[in-house]
Specification:
Blueprint: E1 16-19, E2 22-25, E3 44-46, E4 49-51, H1 53-60, H2 62-79
Antiparallel strand pairs: 1-2, 3-4
Bound molecules: zinc ion (ZN) (2 copies).
The site of one zinc ion (ZN) has 8 residues, from α1.
């Protein structure tokens, strides 16, 4: 059995996560940026690292992050009552 892609240790079958043609411990299959344990759906591989969708967008799609930031600013100004339609 191949070792875990993250820690290079053997994996017991009940801990095995198989994703992107690699094997991982369930607890080693984490986003390289926010360290959240990843689910089977959503993760993205970039430069041989796995990221959750959100971190991937932030790191690799800065224009998307700009949009998120804008929405966030808009929401917080609505919450603070400083935004008027
Ligand atoms: Zn591992
Ligand atoms: Zn993440």
């Amino acid at each position: 059995m191949d070792p875990c892609h993250t820690c290079n240790k053997d994996i017991l079958i009940e801990e095995l996560t198989f994703a992107f043609d690699r094997k991982w411990h369930r607890s080693c299959f984490r986003c390289a940026f926010c360290k959240e344990i990843l689910d089977y759906e959503g993760p993205v591989v970039e430069s041989d690292k796995v990221y959750c969708e959100l971190c991937h967008d932030i790191l690799y799609k800065p224009e998307y992050y700009g949009y998120m930031q804008m929405m966030f600013d808009l929401c917080s100004s609505i919450w603070k009552g400083t935004y008027h339609l």
